[in-house]
Amino acid sequence: MNKVKYQTLTGMHDVLPDDQLYIKKIDKAVEGVANYYGFSKIETPIVEQAELFSKGVGADTDIIGKEMYTFRTKGADFVCLRPEGTAGIMRSYIEHGMHNLPQPVKLWYLGPFFRYEKPQAGRFRQFHQFGFEALGEKTPSIDCQIIQMSYDVLKELSIKNITIEVNSIGDSECRPYFKKILTGYLRSRKSSLCSDCQRRLKENPLRILDCKEEKCQRVKAGAPQIIDHLCEDCHTHFKQVLEFLDELELPYTLNPYLVRGLDYYTKTVFEIVEQAEDGQSNGSLIGGGRYDNLAKILGGRDTPSCGSAGGIERILSLMKNKEIKTKKSKDEPQIFLAQLGQLAKRKSMKLFEEFRAAKIPMAESFSKDSLKTQLRTADKMGIRWVLIFGQKEALEDFITLRDMDSGVQKEIKLDKVVQEMKTKVKK
RNA sequence: GAGCACGUAGCGCAAUUGGUUAGAGCGUUAGAUUGUGGAUCUAAUGGUUGCGGGUUCAAAUCCCGUCGUGCUCCCCA
């Protein structure tokens, strides 16, 4: 055996057949919820202009310099592998003049995304997200619908102990004002902050609110909270969102420290987190919120929008940990076709195709010659009905059906076999 | 970008703490008289101990480097 020369790159991984059952289940849940709420699927390219993503981010984070997969093409375009879904969808909305459609335009997506990060729990360099986006609508009911849908997906997947954390981060009117108040407060207590937070004070003061350092926790307990400083518009918006959430009886908590780093985010932000048994949060599974400023940043007309995105790998690993069952699909064969001898093998391959035409799933092991092995294989697959097609059967145009549960066998005329098996499988 | 831990057959593990030829189990493949599964039994398959260097009479074991993995910090769209 040769040594394995090639392996997946850091942070990349193969999704092996066993995991596909989970993936499929998640995909189905997302698609089902999206369809019900009238969201249409959209696919945008994996490669986009780097600027599409960097423009709204602002300069003071690691995002642009370190965490995007950027490269120059042969034609000297500066491009990147998409790090998230929203910007591409907004680009598409603007590019295709979707403001001419009835608003909001409701879209959903699912696919791979790329961030050049050091892998750790629930963080990979290539990962998958799904998301819902409602573009061109500013009323709070849509915020709530997005939250409801996100919650529904997890519920559909039987994930327990989830709570929704919500907050409002204001808009371009009130947030700068709040930032000033907060920074003022924090600056007066600078010496009580950890060294990271002292740096954040300059670069991204809102982030101090979710610092885990104990000394910072104490400082932030007395800090001004944004919900007390929202402008009237943001305040009533948020109030209405909460009223909707109450009405829908969604399990939410207010988290005044929940923030978003980037400027285009406005008003509602939320994260759905799984509570571990010790009450600790296990990181967020789905996050989202309003991004009323993004369209303008990208050069489009004013398009208030709201959306959410969920991490498939995180949800998948949670489902595995909780041993959430995945159902065998209905296409799983219940019949196995075993063959013996050259003549029978040739005829079997033809018969197999007849079953396919009749849309009856069937398993086989044409590469094996021993009947014993084929029966063993059928058994391992948990298949009940085995059709045995040997020399004798091939010459006399019949087939032997074995019931693996009882061991009872009977002969069926070859031209009746598809019909007869159809009724067996139906039960 | 910083730190901690780990790396032995396909998989999950063992190797009396530096001592001979690195072991079972599961899996896979085949067989137990020629056309009948599950149980059992038998055999085969499978590793230059991630890679490279060093120390030593002797290295899976100690040291350095490197790659990879897990986790924490940074960052988090």
Task: Describe the model.
The chain is α+β, with helices and mostly antiparallel strands and 427 residues long. Strands 1-5-6-11-10-9-7-8 form an eight-stranded mixed β-sheet. It has a five-stranded mixed β-sheet with strand order 13-12-14-15-16, with helices on both faces. The chain has a three-stranded antiparallel β-sheet with strand order 2-4-3. The protein folds into three domains: 17-171 and 232-321, BirA Bifunctional Protein, domain 2; 175-229, no CATH class; 335-426, Anticodon-binding domain (Rossmann fold), CATH 3.40.50.800. It has helices spanning 17-36, 50-54, 63-67, 86-95, 140-156, 175-188, 195-203, 214-221, 232-247, 294-297, 312-321, 342-357, 371-380, 391-396, 417-426; strands at 40-41, 47-49, 69-72, 78-81, 105-114, 126-135, 162-168, 252-254, 266-275, 281-290, 305-311, 335-339, 363-364, 385-389, 398-403, 409-413. The protein binds one RNA strand of 77 nucleotides through residues 1, 3-4, 7-8, 10, 53, 56-57, 61-63, 66-67, 83-87, 113, 115, 117-121, 123, 196, 204, 207, 212, 260-262, 264-265, 287, 309, 338, 340-341, 370-380, 386, 388, 390-392, 400, 402, 404, 407, 409.
